[in-house]
Design brief:
90 residues, little secondary structure, Alpha-Beta Plaits, two-stranded antiparallel ribbon, 2 helices, binds iron/sulfur cluster
Length: 90
């Protein structure tokens, strides 16, 4: 996999752009965020606040790296992100 070059200075948002994590860490997640595309208004807050950069600019969650912290669901003022039990997706 082609790794991205890290920027020279700290990002102005809370997380690096998606794609910097290289070791999959989603295996210990107990809940997963699921985005309701009908409710989503594409404001970008979840993308900006996800600390792991696992939400793409198209608002797709990369479950290989999402740790299920729930910050995206908390920040979404539209209530478009629901945290669902990981066991229900096994
Ligand atoms: S914060 Fe909510 S409304 Fe905004 S882009 Fe993310 S899912 Fe959509
Ligand atoms: S649950 Fe946490 S790690 Fe997963 S997409 Fe939301 S903010 Fe990012």
């Amino acid at each position: 996999m082609q790794l991205k070059k890290l920027p020279d200075r700290a990002p102005e948002i809370t997380a690096f752009e998606a794609g910097y994590l290289v070791s999959k860490n989603g295996g210990w997640r107990s809940v997963r965020p699921v985005i309701d595309k009908e409710r989503c208004v594409r404001c970008g807050q979840c993308y900006l606040y996800c600390p792991d950069g696992t939400i793409s600019p198209e608002f797709e969650v990369d479950y290989d790296f999402c740790k299920g912290c729930g910050i995206c669901a908390k920040i979404c003022k539209r209530g478009a992100i629901m945290l669902e039990k990981e066991a229900d997706h096994a």
